[in-house]
Amino acid sequence: MPTSISIDATGPKLKELLEHLPKGETVSILGSDGEPMAVVIPAEPPTDEAVSPEVWIAEWRALAQEIGKAWKSDKSAVELLSEMRR
């Protein structure tokens, strides 16, 4: 499904567009000049399942370990960011 559509094409395709728009996705409607005129947002919000805090923390710890194994610098990420901001 496109993420943008011209205003001229919305008439015949609007029903199809709305029926197939995934929850949580939006579509921009563009004017004849290509500039955005409107944004179509589904009325129902996406139904994401809530993740328990324990699962969330475990996923982040696993990601941290994976990044740590691949880290090549003697400096920490905080040190590198600090140097970049100088």
Q: What is the percent of helical residues?
A: 40-55%
Shape: elongated
- Which secondary-structure class do the elements indicate? alpha+beta
Portion of residues in beta strands equals 5-15%
Head-to-tail CA distance between termini = 44 Å
Number of helices: 3
Radius of gyration (Å): 22 Å
Could you report the average pLDDT, rounded to the nearest whole number? 81
| Count of structural domains | 2
How is this structure best described in words?
This protein has 86 residues and is of the alpha+beta class. It has two domains: 4-40; 53-84, no CATH class. The protein has three helices and three strands. It has helices at 7-20, 53-70, 77-84, and strands spanning 4-6, 27-30, 36-40. The protein has a three-stranded mixed β-sheet, with helices on one face. The longest helix is centred in the last third of the chain and has 18 residues, at 53-70. It is elongated and about 60 Å long. 0% of the residues are buried. The mean pLDDT is 81.
Helix and strand layout, with pairings?
Layout lengths: L3 E3 H14 L6 E4 L5 E5 L12 H18 L6 H8 L2
Parallel strand pairs: 1-2
Antiparallel strand pairs: 2-3
Main features:
single chain; 86 residues; alpha+beta; 2 domains; 3 helices
Short account of what is shown:
By secondary structure, the protein is α+β, with helices and mostly antiparallel strands.
